[in-house]
């Protein structure tokens, strides 16, 4: 596991084989000075509606506690790819380079949206089973627009620049490397 927590810059970066904890990410970015927190959660799910409902209910709970405006995005990996059911994803990374690029993305976000307060980027490595989170990006700022734009920017940049590779492993035991 690689983890970097920078309280002075407000960044929390983590690559881990452990389950990702959405509540910890939300707690980290939540602050009384922020009016908005936006979150992207990438899940490997079979039933999208059920998972979105669970995340939505959790977000409502966070709104009541933090008095923040919460926008959430749930990304999902399709249950089937090329007509074959996915059993799990296997993630690998060039970890030290990935962390460096995560921090560069955080810096770019702060240049584009100077009011951003905290940024949390957590990505799973190893095998990620159905219904497990593979990536969390959470951003807080005084206003919703900055957080929505920053989260979208972050996830797009992660997919383009970070050396993390994904292998789809199918229920029939075959596998195929895919772009992250």
UniProtKB/TrEMBL annotation:
Top-level lineage group: Eukaryota
Single Gene Ontology BP annotation: Mo-molybdopterin cofactor biosynthetic process
InterPro entries, A to Z: MoaE_sf (IPR036563), Mopterin_biosynth_MoaE (IPR003448)
Name by which UniProt lists this protein: Molybdopterin synthase catalytic subunit 1
